[in-house]
Write a structure and sequence with these properties.
Layout (H helix, E strand, L loop, with lengths): L4 H11 L2 E3 L2 H7 L4 E5 H5 L5 E7 L5 H12 L5 H12 L7 E7 L3 E6 L2 E6 L11 H9 L3 E7 L2 E9 L6 H12 L4 E3 L4 H11 L4 E2 L4 H13 L4 E5 L5 H6 L2 E5 L5 H6 L2 E3 L6 H16 L1
Parallel strand pairs: 2-9, 2-11, 9-10, 11-12, 12-13
Antiparallel strand pairs: 1-13, 3-8, 4-5, 5-6, 6-7, 7-8
Helix pairs in contact: 1-2, 1-12, 2-12, 4-5, 7-12
Bound molecules: adenosine-5'-diphosphate and magnesium ion (MG).
Family: Belongs to the cation transport ATPase (P-type) (TC 3.A.3) family. Type IB subfamily.
Subcellular location: Cell membrane
Protein name: Heavy metal translocating P-type ATPase
């Protein structure tokens, strides 16, 4: 017997390094006419590095990094991994932490040496208090600024930077051609870092500072406008948007388990070019089916 076109397409997608979870998913991928892309880990390599340490009064740079790394120890977020790697790279002993919790799109919190240590998005500390100046300086430079709080008081700010994937600009162009409109960028990162990355990969519709439910709302808005949305993401914060999209695709290498489980397809080989490739494969298969 000859293989049905959609099953052939799934096999071909596998050759491109994409795990498509069903024939229905394979068919839907070709129907999309709008694309929403996450930033960190999707358009960027997802291996950010700590580039600046800005300790505040009474804290040394090494204490700041050790404190942040202790709190991030259980984190599966690229930023958390970067903080832990930076501390390890300097050979810093990490104080033990307990009671780790992560809030998608916001940050993490844990009990370190009897203090509650929180590491995450600046929030209200962007506009007031001792962290405001270093946050402004780092964000102006296009960094992701992360504030470290000890018992609610700012202990310092970390700057992090991630590189766009080599294939990001080409994949953005290919998706724009396939769907007839430029993709939109949805990110929890600050608008300045988002704008800088957007310029580098050729995107103009950029929404920064989004929480997971804001990403979901953006996908729903596109759908309400009559679009069939392809969402591409990698984080726990992307899961609601991945679930709501017509097709949800997760980046697999550094992707959070929840994102991989929620998505309809997973890019197993770490190449963004595979995303437009599977949309094109689906279209070709659909022409054979009908
Ligand atoms: P993106 O949408 O670009 O993938 P996220 O929504 O995952 O980004 O994160 C948004 C922001 O929340 C980050 O820029 C950071 O400020 C903060 N954040 C989230 N998780 C962490 C973490 N584990 N450590 C520090 N900051 C975090
Ligand atoms: Mg992400």
């Amino acid at each position: 017997a000859t293989m049905p076109p959609l099953l052939c397409a799934i096999a071909n997608a596998g050759r491109h390094g994409v795990l498509v979870k069903s024939a229905v998913v394979m068919e839907r991928l070709g129907q999309v006419d709008a694309v929403a892309l996450d930033k960190t880990g999707t358009l960027t390599e997802g291996t950010p590095r700590v580039t600046e340490l800005r300790p505040l009064d009474g804290v040394t740079a090494e204490q700041l990094l050790a404190l942040a790394a202790a709190a991030e120890h259980g984190s599966e977020h690229p930023l958390g991994r970067a903080v832990v790697a930076a501390a390890r790279g300097r050979g810093l002993p990490l104080p033990p932490a307990e009671g780790f919790t992560a809030t998608p799109g916001v940050g993490v919190r844990a009990l370190v040496d009897g203090s509650v240590v929180a590491v995450g998005a600046p929030g209200p500390h962007r506009s007031r208090g001792p962290a405001a100046a270093p946050v402004a300086e780092l964000e102006q430079a296009g960094r992701t600024a992360v504030v470290v709080l000890r018992d609610g008081e700012p202990a310092g700010v970390l700057g992090l930077a991630d590189r766009p994937r080599g294939q990001a600009a080409a994949a953005v162009r290919a998706l724009a051609v396939l769907t007839g409109r430029p993709p939109v960028l949805l990110t929890g990162d600050n608008p300045r870092a988002a704008d800088r990355l957007a310029r580098e990969v050729g995107l103009t519709d950029v929404r920064g500072g989004l929480l997971p439910h804001d990403k979901l709302a953006a996908v729903r808005d596109l759908a309400a406008g009559g679009h069939r949305v392809l969402m591409v993401g990698d984080g726990v914060n992307d899961a609601p948007a991945l679930a709501a999209a017509h097709s949800g695709v997760a980046m697999g290498r550094a992707g959070a388990d929840l994102a991989l489980e929620t998505a309809d397809a997973v890019v197993v080989r770490d190449e963004l070019a595979a995303v437009p490739a599977v949309v094109a494969l689906s279209r070709r298969a659909r022409r054979l089916v009908v």
